[in-house]
Amino acid sequence: MSDNLVEVRDLSFSYGGRLVLRDIDLSARRGQVVAIMGLSGCGKTTLLKLIGGQLKPTQGKVLVDGESVGDLDLGALYRLRRRMGMLFQFGALFTDMSVYDNVAFPLREHTDLPEAMINDLVLMKLNAVGLRGAMDMMPAELSGGMARRAALARAIALEPKLIMYDEPFAGLDPVSLGVIGNLIRRLTDTLGITSLVVTHDIQESLKMVDYVYFISDGVIEAQGTPAEIRASHLPFVHQFVHGEADGPVPFHYPAEDYALDLGVAHG
Amino acid sequence: MANGPGYWLRRMGARWVDSTWRLGLATRFLVLILLYSGISIRRFQLVIKEIFNAGVLSLIIILVSGLFVGMVLGLQGYETLQTYGAEESLGILVALSLVRELGPVVAGLLFASRAGSAMTAEIGLMKTTEQLTALEMMALDPIARVIAPRFWAGVISMPLLAALFSAMGIFGGYLVGVVLLGVDEGSFWSQMQAAVDFREDILNGVIKSAVFGVAVTTIALYEGYDAPPTAEGVSRATTRTVVTSSLTILALDFVLTSFMFRGVS
Protein backbone atom coordinates (compact mmCIF):
# COMPACT_ATOMS: atom_id res chain seq x y z
CA MET A 1 0.00 0.00 0.00
CA SER A 2 1.40 3.32 -1.05
CA ASP A 3 2.04 5.99 1.57
CA ASN A 4 0.09 8.44 -0.52
CA LEU A 5 -3.67 8.17 -0.66
CA VAL A 6 -3.91 10.71 -3.45
CA GLU A 7 -1.35 11.08 -6.20
CA VAL A 8 -1.67 13.44 -9.11
CA ARG A 9 0.92 12.94 -11.81
CA ASP A 10 1.67 15.23 -14.72
CA LEU A 11 -1.98 16.29 -14.88
CA SER A 12 -3.31 18.70 -17.49
CA PHE A 13 -6.90 19.64 -18.10
CA SER A 14 -8.39 21.85 -20.73
CA TYR A 15 -11.95 23.02 -21.04
CA GLY A 16 -13.39 24.54 -24.18
CA GLY A 17 -9.93 24.84 -25.72
CA ARG A 18 -8.55 26.70 -22.68
CA LEU A 19 -5.83 25.05 -20.61
CA VAL A 20 -7.13 25.25 -17.02
CA LEU A 21 -4.49 23.10 -15.31
CA ARG A 22 -0.98 22.35 -16.55
CA ASP A 23 1.53 19.69 -15.47
CA ILE A 24 0.24 19.34 -11.93
CA ASP A 25 2.15 16.96 -9.63
CA LEU A 26 0.71 16.65 -6.17
CA SER A 27 0.34 14.04 -3.47
CA ALA A 28 -1.42 13.69 -0.15
CA ARG A 29 -0.03 11.30 2.45
CA ARG A 30 -2.43 9.16 4.43
CA GLY A 31 -3.53 10.88 7.64
CA GLN A 32 -2.47 14.36 6.49
CA VAL A 33 -4.35 17.58 5.89
CA VAL A 34 -3.20 19.03 2.58
CA ALA A 35 -4.30 22.46 1.42
CA ILE A 36 -4.61 23.52 -2.19
CA MET A 37 -4.53 27.29 -2.31
CA GLY A 38 -4.85 29.92 -4.91
CA LEU A 39 -6.89 32.87 -5.98
CA SER A 40 -10.47 32.48 -7.07
CA GLY A 41 -10.65 31.01 -10.56
CA CYS A 42 -7.11 29.58 -10.56
CA GLY A 43 -8.36 26.03 -11.19
CA LYS A 44 -8.26 24.59 -7.68
CA THR A 45 -11.92 23.51 -7.61
CA THR A 46 -11.38 21.94 -11.05
CA LEU A 47 -8.53 19.95 -9.51
CA LEU A 48 -10.91 18.70 -6.80
CA LYS A 49 -13.42 17.67 -9.45
CA LEU A 50 -10.70 15.74 -11.27
CA ILE A 51 -9.77 13.91 -8.07
CA GLY A 52 -13.44 13.12 -7.39
CA GLY A 53 -13.91 11.83 -10.93
CA GLN A 54 -16.47 14.46 -11.95
CA LEU A 55 -14.10 15.48 -14.74
CA LYS A 56 -11.62 13.40 -16.72
CA PRO A 57 -8.03 14.59 -17.17
CA THR A 58 -6.92 15.65 -20.63
CA GLN A 59 -3.48 14.27 -19.87
CA GLY A 60 -1.80 12.62 -16.89
CA LYS A 61 -3.18 10.54 -14.06
CA VAL A 62 -5.07 10.93 -10.79
CA LEU A 63 -4.58 8.01 -8.40
CA VAL A 64 -6.81 7.66 -5.35
CA ASP A 65 -6.08 4.69 -3.10
CA GLY A 66 -4.12 3.16 -5.98
CA GLU A 67 -6.91 3.45 -8.57
CA SER A 68 -6.65 5.69 -11.60
CA VAL A 69 -9.80 7.80 -11.32
CA GLY A 70 -10.00 8.87 -14.96
CA ASP A 71 -9.86 5.30 -16.27
CA LEU A 72 -12.61 3.82 -14.10
CA ASP A 73 -16.02 2.91 -15.50
CA LEU A 74 -19.08 4.30 -13.73
CA GLY A 75 -19.57 1.26 -11.46
CA ALA A 76 -15.95 1.26 -10.32
CA LEU A 77 -15.99 5.04 -9.89
CA TYR A 78 -19.07 4.80 -7.66
CA ARG A 79 -17.38 2.05 -5.61
CA LEU A 80 -14.36 4.31 -5.16
CA ARG A 81 -16.57 7.25 -4.22
CA ARG A 82 -17.96 5.29 -1.28
CA ARG A 83 -14.47 5.69 0.16
CA MET A 84 -14.55 9.45 -0.45
CA GLY A 85 -16.47 12.19 1.27
CA MET A 86 -16.93 15.68 0.01
CA LEU A 87 -17.87 18.86 1.80
CA PHE A 88 -19.36 21.37 -0.60
CA GLN A 89 -18.91 25.11 -0.29
CA PHE A 90 -22.36 25.72 1.15
CA GLY A 91 -22.91 22.23 2.51
CA ALA A 92 -25.31 21.00 -0.20
CA LEU A 93 -27.59 19.48 2.45
CA PHE A 94 -30.83 18.02 1.11
CA THR A 95 -33.28 20.78 1.90
CA ASP A 96 -36.33 18.52 2.19
CA MET A 97 -34.79 16.46 5.01
CA SER A 98 -33.91 17.21 8.62
CA VAL A 99 -30.28 17.30 9.75
CA TYR A 100 -30.72 13.80 11.19
CA ASP A 101 -32.09 12.38 7.92
CA ASN A 102 -29.33 14.09 5.95
CA VAL A 103 -26.65 12.33 8.00
CA ALA A 104 -28.58 9.05 7.89
CA PHE A 105 -29.03 9.33 4.11
CA PRO A 106 -25.76 7.72 2.92
CA LEU A 107 -26.11 4.98 5.57
CA ARG A 108 -29.67 4.16 4.49
CA GLU A 109 -28.75 4.22 0.80
CA HIS A 110 -25.55 2.19 0.95
CA THR A 111 -25.95 -0.19 3.87
CA ASP A 112 -28.55 -2.64 5.14
CA LEU A 113 -27.98 -1.66 8.76
CA PRO A 114 -31.01 -1.82 11.06
CA GLU A 115 -32.55 1.55 11.89
CA ALA A 116 -31.44 1.28 15.55
CA MET A 117 -27.81 1.04 14.52
CA ILE A 118 -28.19 3.86 12.00
CA ASN A 119 -29.62 5.95 14.84
CA ASP A 120 -26.51 5.29 16.98
CA LEU A 121 -24.16 6.08 14.10
CA VAL A 122 -25.98 9.30 13.21
CA LEU A 123 -25.92 10.48 16.82
CA MET A 124 -22.18 9.72 17.02
CA LYS A 125 -21.43 11.67 13.84
CA LEU A 126 -23.60 14.59 14.93
CA ASN A 127 -21.97 14.58 18.35
CA ALA A 128 -18.53 14.69 16.70
CA VAL A 129 -19.46 17.95 14.96
CA GLY A 130 -21.34 19.30 18.00
CA LEU A 131 -24.79 19.28 16.42
CA ARG A 132 -26.56 16.47 18.29
CA GLY A 133 -28.93 19.09 19.69
CA ALA A 134 -29.81 20.31 16.19
CA MET A 135 -30.74 16.94 14.71
CA ASP A 136 -34.42 17.81 14.24
CA MET A 137 -33.74 21.14 12.56
CA MET A 138 -34.21 21.65 8.82
CA PRO A 139 -31.25 22.90 6.72
CA ALA A 140 -32.98 26.26 6.14
CA GLU A 141 -32.91 26.91 9.90
CA LEU A 142 -29.13 26.46 10.20
CA SER A 143 -26.49 29.17 10.06
CA GLY A 144 -23.74 28.90 7.45
CA GLY A 145 -21.28 27.34 9.89
CA MET A 146 -23.83 24.89 11.27
CA ALA A 147 -24.88 23.81 7.77
CA ARG A 148 -21.26 23.05 6.96
CA ARG A 149 -20.82 21.07 10.17
CA ALA A 150 -23.97 19.07 9.43
CA ALA A 151 -22.68 18.41 5.91
CA LEU A 152 -19.37 17.33 7.42
CA ALA A 153 -21.23 14.84 9.63
CA ARG A 154 -22.89 13.50 6.48
CA ALA A 155 -19.54 13.32 4.65
CA ILE A 156 -18.01 11.16 7.43
CA ALA A 157 -21.10 8.97 7.82
CA LEU A 158 -19.66 6.11 5.77
CA GLU A 159 -16.20 6.58 7.32
CA PRO A 160 -14.37 7.46 4.11
CA LYS A 161 -10.62 7.35 3.61
CA LEU A 162 -10.51 10.74 1.92
CA ILE A 163 -12.49 13.90 2.51
CA MET A 164 -12.36 16.79 0.08
CA TYR A 165 -13.36 20.23 1.27
CA ASP A 166 -14.37 22.85 -1.29
CA GLU A 167 -13.82 26.29 0.26
CA PRO A 168 -14.87 25.23 3.77
CA PHE A 169 -14.14 28.67 5.24
CA ALA A 170 -15.88 30.88 2.68
CA GLY A 171 -18.31 33.35 4.18
CA LEU A 172 -17.96 32.23 7.81
CA ASP A 173 -17.68 34.42 10.91
CA PRO A 174 -14.34 34.15 12.80
CA VAL A 175 -15.74 31.79 15.45
CA SER A 176 -17.32 29.36 12.96
CA LEU A 177 -14.13 29.57 10.94
CA GLY A 178 -12.07 28.40 13.88
CA VAL A 179 -14.59 25.67 14.67
CA ILE A 180 -14.49 24.26 11.13
CA GLY A 181 -10.68 24.48 10.99
CA ASN A 182 -10.45 22.61 14.30
CA LEU A 183 -12.93 19.98 13.17
CA ILE A 184 -11.02 19.26 9.96
CA ARG A 185 -7.81 18.71 11.95
CA ARG A 186 -9.49 16.68 14.71
CA LEU A 187 -11.49 14.42 12.37
CA THR A 188 -8.41 13.77 10.24
CA ASP A 189 -6.41 12.73 13.31
CA THR A 190 -9.06 10.72 15.14
CA LEU A 191 -10.55 8.92 12.15
CA GLY A 192 -7.20 8.45 10.41
CA ILE A 193 -8.51 9.91 7.17
CA THR A 194 -6.81 12.12 4.61
CA SER A 195 -8.12 15.62 4.02
CA LEU A 196 -7.74 17.77 0.92
CA VAL A 197 -8.76 21.35 1.57
CA VAL A 198 -9.29 23.76 -1.30
CA THR A 199 -9.28 27.27 0.10
CA HIS A 200 -7.99 30.78 -0.20
CA ASP A 201 -8.09 31.41 3.54
CA ILE A 202 -4.36 31.39 4.17
CA GLN A 203 -4.27 32.38 7.85
CA GLU A 204 -6.75 29.72 9.00
CA SER A 205 -5.17 27.06 6.82
CA LEU A 206 -1.58 27.61 7.92
CA LYS A 207 -2.69 26.93 11.49
CA MET A 208 -3.84 23.41 10.87
CA VAL A 209 -2.54 21.88 7.64
CA ASP A 210 0.48 19.63 7.12
CA TYR A 211 1.36 20.67 3.59
CA VAL A 212 0.36 23.44 1.20
CA TYR A 213 0.27 23.65 -2.60
CA PHE A 214 -0.14 27.04 -4.25
CA ILE A 215 -1.79 27.10 -7.65
CA SER A 216 -1.67 30.14 -9.87
CA ASP A 217 -2.89 30.26 -13.45
CA GLY A 218 -3.21 26.49 -13.58
CA VAL A 219 0.31 25.57 -12.45
CA ILE A 220 1.76 24.77 -9.04
CA GLU A 221 3.62 27.92 -8.14
CA ALA A 222 4.94 26.88 -4.73
CA GLN A 223 4.63 24.14 -2.14
CA GLY A 224 5.83 23.32 1.35
CA THR A 225 5.00 22.96 5.00
CA PRO A 226 3.30 25.92 6.71
CA ALA A 227 6.66 26.96 8.22
CA GLU A 228 8.34 26.92 4.81
CA ILE A 229 5.46 28.90 3.29
CA ARG A 230 5.66 31.56 6.01
CA ALA A 231 9.38 31.91 5.43
CA SER A 232 9.07 31.91 1.66
CA HIS A 233 10.44 34.86 -0.28
CA LEU A 234 8.72 33.97 -3.53
CA PRO A 235 6.89 37.16 -4.54
CA PHE A 236 3.59 35.38 -5.27
CA VAL A 237 3.56 33.54 -1.94
CA HIS A 238 4.60 36.68 -0.10
CA GLN A 239 1.75 38.63 -1.67
CA PHE A 240 -0.72 35.86 -0.88
CA VAL A 241 0.38 35.32 2.74
CA HIS A 242 0.37 39.02 3.52
CA GLY A 243 -2.71 39.85 1.49
CA GLU A 244 -1.05 42.64 -0.48
CA ALA A 245 -3.25 44.36 -3.03
CA ASP A 246 -0.62 44.58 -5.75
CA GLY A 247 2.32 42.42 -6.72
CA PRO A 248 2.81 39.56 -9.17
CA VAL A 249 -0.99 39.31 -9.11
CA PRO A 250 -1.92 42.75 -10.43
CA PHE A 251 -4.76 44.81 -9.00
CA HIS A 252 -6.04 45.58 -12.49
CA TYR A 253 -7.58 43.01 -14.77
CA PRO A 254 -5.77 43.29 -18.12
CA ALA A 255 -7.31 46.20 -20.02
CA GLU A 256 -6.72 48.70 -22.80
CA ASP A 257 -4.78 51.84 -21.96
CA TYR A 258 -6.83 53.88 -19.44
CA ALA A 259 -6.31 57.17 -21.28
CA LEU A 260 -7.41 55.59 -24.56
CA ASP A 261 -10.58 54.23 -22.92
CA LEU A 262 -11.39 57.66 -21.51
CA GLY A 263 -10.76 59.20 -24.90
CA VAL A 264 -8.16 61.68 -23.58
CA ALA A 265 -5.07 60.18 -25.21
CA HIS A 266 -3.20 62.30 -27.68
CA GLY A 267 -1.98 60.88 -30.92
CA MET B 1 -24.11 46.14 -35.90
CA ALA B 2 -24.65 43.68 -38.75
CA ASN B 3 -28.43 43.37 -38.66
CA GLY B 4 -28.86 42.49 -42.33
CA PRO B 5 -30.89 39.55 -43.65
CA GLY B 6 -27.86 37.28 -43.28
CA TYR B 7 -27.72 38.03 -39.56
CA TRP B 8 -31.40 37.18 -38.99
CA LEU B 9 -31.12 34.07 -41.14
CA ARG B 10 -28.16 32.94 -39.06
CA ARG B 11 -30.04 33.61 -35.83
CA MET B 12 -33.08 31.68 -37.01
CA GLY B 13 -30.88 28.82 -38.13
CA ALA B 14 -29.09 28.81 -34.78
CA ARG B 15 -32.39 28.66 -32.91
CA TRP B 16 -33.59 25.82 -35.09
CA VAL B 17 -30.38 23.86 -34.56
CA ASP B 18 -30.55 24.59 -30.82
CA SER B 19 -34.16 23.40 -30.57
CA THR B 20 -33.33 20.20 -32.45
CA TRP B 21 -30.44 19.58 -30.07
CA ARG B 22 -32.68 20.12 -27.05
CA LEU B 23 -35.30 17.75 -28.45
CA GLY B 24 -32.64 15.12 -28.98
CA LEU B 25 -31.14 15.62 -25.51
CA ALA B 26 -34.58 15.50 -23.87
CA THR B 27 -35.32 12.22 -25.67
CA ARG B 28 -31.99 10.81 -24.52
CA PHE B 29 -32.86 11.99 -21.02
CA LEU B 30 -36.19 10.10 -21.20
CA VAL B 31 -34.37 6.93 -22.29
CA LEU B 32 -31.94 7.33 -19.36
CA ILE B 33 -34.88 7.74 -16.95
CA LEU B 34 -36.42 4.51 -18.25
CA LEU B 35 -33.08 2.68 -18.00
CA TYR B 36 -32.48 3.90 -14.44
CA SER B 37 -35.99 3.15 -13.16
CA GLY B 38 -34.87 0.11 -11.16
CA ILE B 39 -34.71 1.96 -7.84
CA SER B 40 -38.19 3.43 -8.38
CA ILE B 41 -39.62 -0.06 -8.80
CA ARG B 42 -37.66 -1.66 -5.96
CA ARG B 43 -38.33 1.19 -3.53
CA PHE B 44 -41.80 2.24 -4.52
CA GLN B 45 -42.17 4.44 -1.43
CA LEU B 46 -39.90 6.96 -3.19
CA VAL B 47 -42.50 7.20 -5.98
CA ILE B 48 -45.36 7.40 -3.48
CA LYS B 49 -43.72 10.37 -1.77
CA GLU B 50 -43.52 12.16 -5.12
CA ILE B 51 -47.11 11.19 -6.00
CA PHE B 52 -48.04 13.15 -2.89
CA ASN B 53 -46.07 16.19 -4.09
CA ALA B 54 -47.18 16.08 -7.72
CA GLY B 55 -50.63 14.52 -7.44
CA VAL B 56 -52.18 15.05 -4.04
CA LEU B 57 -51.03 18.66 -3.78
CA SER B 58 -52.54 19.36 -7.24
CA LEU B 59 -55.94 18.01 -6.14
CA ILE B 60 -57.48 21.31 -5.04
CA ILE B 61 -56.80 23.15 -8.29
CA ILE B 62 -57.88 20.12 -10.38
CA LEU B 63 -61.11 19.51 -8.46
CA VAL B 64 -62.20 23.14 -8.29
CA SER B 65 -61.37 23.76 -11.97
CA GLY B 66 -63.18 20.56 -12.95
CA LEU B 67 -66.28 21.63 -11.05
CA PHE B 68 -66.41 25.03 -12.72
CA VAL B 69 -65.64 23.74 -16.21
CA GLY B 70 -68.48 21.20 -15.79
CA MET B 71 -70.85 23.90 -14.53
CA VAL B 72 -70.07 26.14 -17.52
CA LEU B 73 -70.53 23.18 -19.88
CA GLY B 74 -73.90 22.48 -18.27
CA LEU B 75 -74.98 26.07 -18.67
CA GLN B 76 -73.77 26.53 -22.26
CA GLY B 77 -74.91 23.07 -23.33
CA TYR B 78 -78.37 23.61 -21.91
CA GLU B 79 -78.72 26.94 -23.76
CA THR B 80 -77.85 25.34 -27.11
CA LEU B 81 -79.66 22.02 -26.68
CA GLN B 82 -82.82 23.74 -25.47
CA THR B 83 -83.15 25.40 -28.89
CA TYR B 84 -83.69 21.95 -30.39
CA GLY B 85 -85.66 20.60 -27.45
CA ALA B 86 -82.84 18.17 -26.76
CA GLU B 87 -81.87 19.29 -23.25
CA GLU B 88 -82.21 15.67 -22.03
CA SER B 89 -79.00 14.95 -23.92
CA LEU B 90 -77.09 17.36 -21.70
CA GLY B 91 -75.56 14.41 -19.84
CA ILE B 92 -74.01 13.09 -23.06
CA LEU B 93 -72.61 16.45 -24.04
CA VAL B 94 -71.05 17.12 -20.65
CA ALA B 95 -69.64 13.61 -20.23
CA LEU B 96 -68.20 13.22 -23.73
CA SER B 97 -66.63 16.70 -23.81
CA LEU B 98 -64.97 16.02 -20.46
CA VAL B 99 -63.91 12.43 -20.86
CA ARG B 100 -62.61 12.74 -24.42
CA GLU B 101 -61.10 16.22 -24.46
CA LEU B 102 -61.41 18.66 -21.61
CA GLY B 103 -60.54 16.22 -18.84
CA PRO B 104 -57.14 15.15 -20.19
CA VAL B 105 -56.27 18.50 -21.82
CA VAL B 106 -57.29 20.97 -19.10
CA ALA B 107 -56.06 18.69 -16.32
CA GLY B 108 -52.80 18.36 -18.29
CA LEU B 109 -52.43 22.13 -18.62
CA LEU B 110 -53.16 22.61 -14.92
CA PHE B 111 -50.76 19.80 -14.02
CA ALA B 112 -48.04 21.45 -16.12
CA SER B 113 -48.45 24.78 -14.38
CA ARG B 114 -48.91 23.43 -10.86
CA ALA B 115 -46.73 20.31 -10.63
CA GLY B 116 -44.48 20.70 -13.70
CA SER B 117 -43.25 24.14 -12.72
CA ALA B 118 -42.66 22.95 -9.15
CA MET B 119 -40.62 19.98 -10.41
CA THR B 120 -38.45 22.20 -12.64
CA ALA B 121 -37.85 24.72 -9.87
CA GLU B 122 -37.02 21.99 -7.35
CA ILE B 123 -34.59 20.12 -9.61
CA GLY B 124 -33.07 23.41 -10.82
CA LEU B 125 -32.47 24.57 -7.25
CA MET B 126 -31.10 21.17 -6.25
CA LYS B 127 -28.62 21.59 -9.06
CA THR B 128 -27.82 25.20 -8.11
CA THR B 129 -27.18 24.25 -4.49
CA GLU B 130 -24.99 21.30 -5.58
CA GLN B 131 -27.37 18.72 -4.10
CA LEU B 132 -27.29 16.72 -7.34
CA THR B 133 -23.47 16.79 -7.40
CA ALA B 134 -23.50 15.78 -3.73
CA LEU B 135 -25.57 12.73 -4.66
CA GLU B 136 -23.06 11.83 -7.38
CA MET B 137 -20.20 12.20 -4.93
CA MET B 138 -22.09 9.88 -2.56
CA ALA B 139 -22.02 7.29 -5.37
CA LEU B 140 -25.72 7.69 -6.15
CA ASP B 141 -27.00 8.47 -9.62
CA PRO B 142 -29.25 11.57 -9.51
CA ILE B 143 -31.33 10.30 -12.43
CA ALA B 144 -32.04 7.03 -10.64
CA ARG B 145 -32.52 8.49 -7.17
CA VAL B 146 -34.17 11.88 -7.79
CA ILE B 147 -35.43 12.10 -11.38
CA ALA B 148 -36.95 8.66 -12.07
CA PRO B 149 -39.24 8.57 -8.98
CA ARG B 150 -40.60 11.99 -9.95
CA PHE B 151 -41.13 10.85 -13.52
CA TRP B 152 -43.17 7.80 -12.50
CA ALA B 153 -45.10 9.86 -9.97
CA GLY B 154 -46.11 12.26 -12.76
CA VAL B 155 -47.03 9.46 -15.15
CA ILE B 156 -49.19 7.75 -12.50
CA SER B 157 -50.76 10.95 -11.14
CA MET B 158 -51.77 12.49 -14.46
CA PRO B 159 -54.49 9.95 -15.56
CA LEU B 160 -55.88 9.89 -12.01
CA LEU B 161 -56.07 13.67 -11.92
CA ALA B 162 -57.71 13.77 -15.36
CA ALA B 163 -60.27 11.18 -14.22
CA LEU B 164 -61.03 13.21 -11.09
CA PHE B 165 -61.30 16.35 -13.20
CA SER B 166 -63.84 14.65 -15.49
CA ALA B 167 -65.81 13.19 -12.57
CA MET B 168 -65.94 16.55 -10.86
CA GLY B 169 -66.92 18.21 -14.15
CA ILE B 170 -69.79 15.76 -14.67
CA PHE B 171 -70.93 16.53 -11.15
CA GLY B 172 -70.76 20.27 -11.98
CA GLY B 173 -72.81 19.68 -15.13
CA TYR B 174 -75.32 17.73 -13.05
CA LEU B 175 -75.56 20.53 -10.48
CA VAL B 176 -76.30 23.17 -13.10
CA GLY B 177 -78.34 21.04 -15.55
CA VAL B 178 -80.43 18.93 -13.20
CA VAL B 179 -80.52 20.76 -9.88
CA LEU B 180 -80.55 24.34 -11.16
CA LEU B 181 -82.15 24.22 -14.60
CA GLY B 182 -84.45 21.24 -14.09
CA VAL B 183 -83.27 18.72 -16.74
CA ASP B 184 -84.79 15.32 -16.01
CA GLU B 185 -82.39 13.45 -13.76
CA GLY B 186 -83.21 10.02 -15.18
CA SER B 187 -82.52 11.03 -18.78
CA PHE B 188 -79.38 12.93 -17.77
CA TRP B 189 -77.76 9.83 -16.30
CA SER B 190 -79.26 7.11 -18.51
CA GLN B 191 -78.43 8.86 -21.78
CA MET B 192 -74.92 9.45 -20.53
CA GLN B 193 -74.58 5.79 -19.57
CA ALA B 194 -75.87 4.66 -22.96
CA ALA B 195 -73.73 6.99 -25.06
CA VAL B 196 -70.36 6.89 -23.34
CA ASP B 197 -68.38 3.86 -24.46
CA PHE B 198 -65.74 2.47 -22.12
CA ARG B 199 -63.13 1.63 -24.74
CA GLU B 200 -63.76 4.39 -27.28
CA ASP B 201 -64.21 7.23 -24.84
CA ILE B 202 -62.96 6.51 -21.36
CA LEU B 203 -59.96 4.35 -22.25
CA ASN B 204 -58.88 6.75 -25.00
CA GLY B 205 -59.13 9.62 -22.50
CA VAL B 206 -56.96 7.70 -20.06
CA ILE B 207 -54.39 6.97 -22.79
CA LYS B 208 -54.31 10.66 -23.70
CA SER B 209 -53.74 11.75 -20.13
CA ALA B 210 -51.00 9.15 -19.63
CA VAL B 211 -49.23 10.44 -22.77
CA PHE B 212 -49.58 14.01 -21.47
CA GLY B 213 -48.19 12.83 -18.14
CA VAL B 214 -45.06 11.43 -19.85
CA ALA B 215 -44.64 14.61 -21.92
CA VAL B 216 -45.14 17.13 -19.11
CA THR B 217 -42.99 15.28 -16.59
CA THR B 218 -40.17 14.68 -19.07
CA ILE B 219 -40.15 18.35 -20.10
CA ALA B 220 -40.33 19.57 -16.49
CA LEU B 221 -37.54 17.30 -15.27
CA TYR B 222 -35.32 17.93 -18.29
CA GLU B 223 -35.67 21.70 -17.99
CA GLY B 224 -34.79 21.53 -14.29
CA TYR B 225 -31.84 19.20 -14.87
CA ASP B 226 -30.56 21.32 -17.74
CA ALA B 227 -31.14 24.74 -16.09
CA PRO B 228 -28.07 26.97 -15.72
CA PRO B 229 -27.27 27.02 -11.99
CA THR B 230 -28.29 30.64 -11.41
CA ALA B 231 -31.45 32.36 -10.17
CA GLU B 232 -32.17 33.61 -13.69
CA GLY B 233 -31.50 30.19 -15.21
CA VAL B 234 -33.97 28.45 -12.90
CA SER B 235 -36.66 31.08 -13.43
CA ARG B 236 -36.30 30.83 -17.22
CA ALA B 237 -36.40 27.04 -17.07
CA THR B 238 -39.61 27.17 -15.02
CA THR B 239 -41.27 29.47 -17.54
CA ARG B 240 -40.08 27.27 -20.40
CA THR B 241 -41.57 24.21 -18.72
CA VAL B 242 -45.03 25.76 -18.58
CA VAL B 243 -44.89 27.14 -22.14
CA THR B 244 -43.35 24.06 -23.78
CA SER B 245 -45.53 21.54 -21.99
CA SER B 246 -48.73 23.50 -22.68
CA LEU B 247 -47.94 23.67 -26.39
CA THR B 248 -46.88 20.02 -26.42
CA ILE B 249 -50.15 18.96 -24.77
CA LEU B 250 -52.24 20.84 -27.32
CA ALA B 251 -50.24 19.52 -30.28
CA LEU B 252 -50.24 15.96 -28.97
CA ASP B 253 -53.95 16.21 -28.30
CA PHE B 254 -54.63 16.97 -31.95
CA VAL B 255 -52.45 14.07 -33.11
CA LEU B 256 -53.98 11.61 -30.63
CA THR B 257 -57.54 12.73 -31.33
CA SER B 258 -57.07 12.32 -35.06
CA PHE B 259 -55.90 8.75 -34.51
CA MET B 260 -58.42 7.80 -31.84
CA PHE B 261 -61.73 9.22 -32.96
CA ARG B 262 -61.60 8.82 -36.74
CA GLY B 263 -64.33 6.18 -36.95
CA VAL B 264 -66.47 7.43 -34.11
CA SER B 265 -69.62 9.19 -35.13
Q: Could you tell me which chain pair has the largest interface and how many residues each side has?
A: A-B, 20 and 14 residues
CATH overall fold name of the domain at 4-83 and 160-262 in chain A: Rossmann fold
Total tally of structural domains of chain B: 1
What's the order of the H and E elements of chain A? EEEHEEHEHHHEHEHEEHHH
**Spatial strand order of the main sheet of chain A:** 6-7-8-3-9-10
Largest sheet of chain A: 6 strands, mixed
By DSSP, the count of extended strands of chain B is 0
> What count of helical segments of chain A does DSSP give?
10
Tally of helical runs of chain B? 10
Helix share of residues of chain A?
Answer: 25-40%
Instruction: Give Rg of chain A in angstroms.
Output: 20 Å
Q: Give start-end ranges of low-pLDDT stretches of chain A.
A: none
Mean pLDDT of chain B: 92
- Number of distinct beta strands of chain A: 10
Structural class, judged by helices and strands of chain A?
A: alpha/beta
Strand content of chain A: 15-25%
In short:
The complex is a heterodimer of chains A (267) and B (265). Chain A is of the alpha/beta class. Chain A is 37% helix and 24% strand.
Please characterize this protein's 3D structure.
The complex is a heterodimer of chains A (about 270) and B (about 260). With about 270 residues, chain A is of the alpha/beta class. Chain A has a domain at about 5-85 and about 160-260: P-loop containing nucleotide triphosphate hydrolases (Rossmann fold), CATH 3.40.50.300. Chain A contains ten helices and ten strands. Chain A has helices at about 45-50, 75-80, 100-110, 115-130, 145-155, 175-190, 200-210, 225-230, 235-240, 260, and strands spanning about 5-15, 20-30, 35, 60-65, 65-70, 85, 160-165, 195-200, 210-215, 220-225. In chain A, the strands form two sheets. Chain A has a six-stranded mixed sheet, with helices on both faces. In chain A, strand 7, helix 6 (about 175-190) and strand 8 (about 195-200) form a beta-alpha-beta unit. In chain A, helix 3 runs parallel beside helix 5 (about 145-155), helix 5 (about 145-155) packs parallel to helix 6 and helix 6 packs parallel to helix 7 (about 200-210). Chain A is globular, with a radius of gyration of 20 Å. The termini of chain A are far apart. The mean pLDDT of chain A is about 85. Chain B is mainly alpha-helical. Chain B has one domain. In chain B, about 85% of the residues lie in helices and about 0% in strands. Chain B contains ten helices and no strands. The model of chain B has no long low-confidence stretch (mean pLDDT about 90). The interface of A and B includes residues 54 and 78 of A.
